[in-house]
Amino acid sequence: MKPDSKIDLKKYKTIVFDCDGVILDSNVVKTEAYFRTAKNLGASDSQAQQLVDYHVKLGGISRYHKFDWYLREVLKQPVTGDAIQVFLDEFGRELEEGLMHCTIVDGLEELRNATKGANWMILSGGDQQEIRDLFAKRDLAKYFDGGLFGSPDNKDTVLAREKANGRIKQPALFVGDSKYDFEASTGAGLDFVFVSDWTEVHDWQQYCSENNIVNCKNIGSFLD
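Structure (tokenized):
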């Protein structure tokens, strides 16, 4: 935890978690899936790497946006729903097996038991139905009574909607591992903690220092 900063989890009525890099060690799985998807659909190594670099740069942003950008800026092709769907389908195939076998963060059940007064929610940049299917298969959905949410809606949209309909109750905390997680959560009036163990943000220490962000290694640190 950041010096002189201790999160009192018991004060929160809602805790929102990002998925990749927070609940699952899946950031690398997704990064590799972007590269293979591009290659499978005819990209050169250079083109595929451009997609990977853009994905890492925009951690937490929907794949819909990333493939839109890739078609437009790298392949210089018309962006249509059908064209994006081809990439989404291929990406989903590449991703499925990796997500079924990646590591689940330690301490999840213990933390759930320690925060019985809060409802838990997943808010991911990943595909919403994919997340719901995955969490059901891996017996994780039971922890998240506040719901499992993802793209095509972006995090700003979901946070605003779930606050308006009362599912996110204040005070609320967002636990994430990307710059977008911080921006979206603070924009919606949620407190924020950055977890660093599996993040792909290379300058996370500087970023957290400059923005006065409470940070810890993983959610198990909350139990210390």
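The first strand starts at residue 14 and ends at 17. The chain has a mean pLDDT of 93.
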